[in-house]
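R.M. (postdoc): so does anyone remember the format we settled on? I'll just put the structure tokens first.
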């Protein structure tokens, strides 16, 4: 797998007696009972379970951690359900991370724990005979019915060297009226159910953190284009890199020209089965501007296309279960941007090893015998028709049982092979490999490239081999051949291929119109004005609607089947398209299909584009377009909770906001408190509950489009049910409007059953029976930069906003400066390169060339890159 973050999990299972969890108005609310008397182990507090109501059942049956592999009886515990394994020792090193597994069981069928069970682990890191110091709660499992609770424990670098104690508590989190339960998630005191085990832990001194534990310690390697580097290091002692939750070491490289980058995580002897999909563009602030790449089908390669010249930082994750621990190696390969198709080959070409012997498809029937890693047969052409399928056969010479054949066709003529252009993958074997290639109905007409790769998939000890199931780069064995394919049209263009040919339909507030059609064979003819912000546009068909008042418009693809997994997220008010408005999109309302929302859309005629993507959006479609009235400024809906005597929000932490509250009101207005965020960046959120219940849930909305409403796509956080604290990440969309807006946090009880009356409410408006609602202010101060702001560096741009003409005061060193202006979709709309001297003034004259709106100005010198948001009025 590959991750950008690891979300929390909440497991559902069978609860004790299968009764609804919780509260009765007369139910006794039991709490943990801290005790600080000497326990059986000597010096540490007592911890017990007494089977208050139903007797003891759930039990710990195995602990595996840092050399401990202790199996205990699979039988109901006996009061006090505590065992100190004084002869069982785990050995750890300060600063290191170790996996932990706590095996559990019960009398349930299948031998799992109960649905409301949880495991907690404490380690007395400072050896003061208690588990109460910050950081000594070393592991908190998910809540759920499992056979083992698993995770990782990182020993702090400052842990005291020597012998200490580890305590493991299995307990029941149930706090309802179905049965009596003393809920206890502390290391001391009595719980009704579960079991407690203590172990000896021997902590050794760490060797210190590695030199590249922080990004600033990474050696910056010079990477030629094209070129390949192998970066090696040792991650022993690596620590968590805040604000992430990952243990990371860093590698870095610098390029002097635009390049396509592949990071290899399957270097023989150093295979990563889990890695971060990111690349940082700055240090020490590695979060701002972080890039996200794409992973290869074999999960070995992370790719970034067309990276500008500069320095980049690779976060190399340390995960003992999935990555090397200690010595590691990764590879970094570069190819030049925009110079044609990527190179591909095989490195071993000795006689007797597998090669492609014949390719037969359409008009191609080509036999080859050369022992080369790559053969260029682009002079050989196969004629195909869009919408048709063609049988093909690839015959191998000296094939092996682990050989595989893959075929790509560049349908969109982009000079690259995208994931949707992989048209054939064979079974493993010596061949011949036969199958069918289907040409999409919307494939662009004309000549394009077909690439065939033969590679060996073997990974094992018998011989050294590097498979490669991608269209680029090398494999150890096999061969790559390129051919030309000439694709003819598959039929007439759609009747709404041109925006001129569509008739706008009236769309009233409160109404819905449905557009249907088929975008097969769409073109990009006359879609946009040449040189406009929308130029160039991929093949598109059009619809149009007219409104007579300010409206919030929702464009839903939910009724489209098969789903369109790629859609346009803009509207234009001209034909051909010129200026545009961007919408906010989400794919949760109808999984696999998109819903795009446009807020505060002025009255007028709007043209709706429907993208034709041969791999992701082609064929019949049905689109519902609905309108609602724009909200009055500041007119947010009311929300609250009716009952004020139970759970409440006690703390909200988000970005730079940290607010503690104690009021019992159903609604609290904290809009005087502000969290500042940057579009394109993710921020942690934490909501702590006072007197929480197992069925409580927290939700948070942010009004990114300033519409005075919380739309479906603005639900930014939804917790699992539980007493909390509830934590997660909030990703600020690039489409978020600048300035201040509203954040709403709701705590509500999800319980529906017979134990007590309750009305849950998982919406941002109106009331719930239990819980609380709090409102805050969020200030969206800028877009994702990946570089320093101009003003912060002594550079300046003025006036801002302007009519499009700006003046830049340059504070850098003498040399060449590249000036780029990007729109909010990330498209470069202006580029220039100038020779400048220190303290010079640069005119940027774009009046009449840019539509009104917000843009990103990027200045790149030999020193570094600077960025600033600019506004054209």
């Amino acid at each position: 797998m590959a991750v950008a973050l690891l979300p929390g999990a909440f497991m559902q299972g069978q609860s004790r007696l299968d009764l609804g969890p919780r509260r009765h108005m007369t139910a006794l609310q039991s709490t943990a009972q801290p005790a600080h008397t000497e326990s059986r182990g000597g010096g540490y507090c007592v911890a017990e379970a007494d089977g208050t109501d139903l007797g003891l059942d759930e039990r710990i049956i195995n602990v595996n951690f840092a050399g401990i592999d202790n199996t205990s009886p699979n039988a109901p515990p006996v009061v006090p359900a505590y065992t100190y394994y004084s002869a069982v020792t785990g050995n750890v090193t300060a600063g290191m991370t170790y996996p932990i597994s706590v095996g559990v069981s019960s009398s349930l069928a299948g031998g799992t724990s109960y649905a409301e069970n949880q495991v907690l682990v404490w380690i007395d890191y400072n050896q003061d005979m208690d588990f109460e110091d910050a950081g000594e709660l070393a592991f908190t499992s998910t809540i759920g019915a499992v056979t083992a609770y698993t995770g990782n424990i990182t020993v702090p670098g400052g842990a005291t060297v020597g012998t200490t104690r580890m305590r493991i508590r299995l307990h029941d989190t149930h706090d309802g009226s179905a049965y009596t339960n003393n809920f206890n998630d502390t290391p001391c005191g009595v719980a009704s159910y579960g079991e407690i085990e203590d172990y000896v832990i021997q902590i050794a001194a760490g060797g210190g953190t590695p030199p590249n534990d922080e990004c600033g310690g990474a050696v910056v390697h010079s990477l030629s284009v094209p070129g390949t580097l192998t970066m090696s290091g040792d991650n022993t002692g690596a620590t968590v890199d805040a604000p992430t939750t990952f243990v990371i070491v860093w590698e870095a490289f610098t390029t002097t020209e635009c390049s396509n980058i592949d990071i290899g995580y399957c270097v023989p002897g150093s295979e990563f089965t889990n890695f971060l999909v990111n690349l940082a563009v700055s240090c020490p602030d590695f979060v701002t501007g972080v890039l996200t790449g794409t992973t290869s089908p074999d999960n070995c390669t992370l790719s970034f296309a067309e990276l500008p010249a500069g320095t980049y930082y690779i976060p190399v994750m340390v995960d003992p279960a999935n990555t090397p621990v200690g010595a590691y190696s990764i590879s970094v390969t570069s190819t030049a941007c925009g110079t044609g198709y990527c190179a591909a080959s095989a490195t071993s070409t000795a006689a007797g090893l597998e090669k492609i012997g014949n390719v037969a498809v359409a008009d191609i029937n080509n036999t080859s015998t050369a022992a080369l890693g790559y053969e260029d047969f682009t002079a050989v052409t196969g004629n195909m028709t869009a919408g048709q399928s063609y049988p093909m056969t690839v015959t191998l010479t000296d094939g092996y049982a682990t050989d595989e054949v893959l075929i790509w066709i560049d349908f969109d003529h982009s000079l690259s092979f995208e994931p949707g252009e992989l048209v054939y993958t064979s079974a493993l074997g010596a061949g011949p490999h036969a199958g069918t290639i289907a040409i999409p109905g919307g494939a662009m007409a004309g000549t394009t490239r077909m690439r065939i790769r033969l590679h060996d998939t073997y990974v094992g000890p018998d011989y050294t081999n590097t498979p490669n199931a991608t269209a680029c780069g090398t494999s150890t064995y096999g061969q790559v051949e390129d051919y030309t394919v000439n694709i003819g049209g598959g039929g007439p263009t759609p009747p709404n291929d041109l925006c001129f040919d569509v008739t706008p339909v009236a769309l009233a507030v409160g109404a819905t119109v449905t557009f249907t059609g088929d975008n097969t064979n769409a073109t990009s003819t006359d879609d946009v004005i040449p040189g406009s912000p929308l130029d160039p546009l991929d093949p598109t068909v059009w619809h149009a609607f007219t409104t007579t008042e300010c409206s919030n418009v929702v464009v839903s693809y939910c009724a489209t089947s098969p789903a369109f997994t790629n859609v346009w997220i803009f509207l234009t008010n001209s034909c051909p398209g010129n200026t545009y408005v961007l919408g906010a999109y989400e794919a949760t309302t109808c999984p696999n299909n998109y819903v795009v929302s446009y807020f505060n859309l002025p009255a007028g005629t709007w043209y709706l584009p429907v993208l034709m993507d041969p791999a992701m959006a082609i064929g019949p479609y049905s689109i519902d377009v609905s309108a609602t009235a724009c909200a009055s400024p500041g007119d947010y809906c009311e929300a609250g909770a009716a009952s004020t005597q139970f759970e409440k929000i006690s703390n909200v932490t988000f970005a730079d906001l940290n607010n503690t509250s104690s009021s019992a009101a159903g609604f609290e207005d904290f809009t005087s408190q502000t969290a500042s965020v940057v579009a394109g960046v993710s921020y942690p959120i934490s909501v702590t509950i006072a007197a929480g219940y197992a069925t409580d849930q927290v939700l948070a909305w942010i009004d990114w489009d300033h519409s005075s409403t919380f739309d479906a796509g603005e639900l930014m956080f939804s917790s699992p049910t539980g007493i909390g604290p509830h934590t997660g990440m909030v990703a600020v969309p690039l489409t978020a409007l600048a300035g201040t807006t509203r954040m709403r946090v709701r705590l509500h009880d999800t319980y529906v059953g017979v134990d007590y009356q309750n009305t849950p409410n998982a919406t941002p408006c109106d009331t719930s029976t239990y819980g609380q609602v709090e409102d805050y202010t969020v200030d969206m101060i800028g877009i994702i930069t990946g570089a320093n702001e101009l003003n912060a560096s002594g550079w300046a741009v003025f006036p801002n906003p302007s009519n499009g003409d700006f003046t830049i005061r340059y504070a850098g060193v003498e040399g060449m400066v590249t000036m780029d202006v990007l729109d909010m979709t990330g498209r470069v709309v202006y580029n220039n390169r100038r020779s400048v001297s220190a303290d010079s003034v640069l005119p940027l004259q774009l009046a009449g060339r840019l539509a009104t709106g917000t843009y990103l100005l990027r200045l790149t010198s030999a020193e570094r890159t600077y960025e600033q948001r600019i506004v054209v009025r």
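R.M.: ...and that's the designed sequence above, right after the tokens. Also worth knowing: The longest strand covers residues 667-679. Residues 4-42, 783-793 have pLDDT under 50 and may be disordered.
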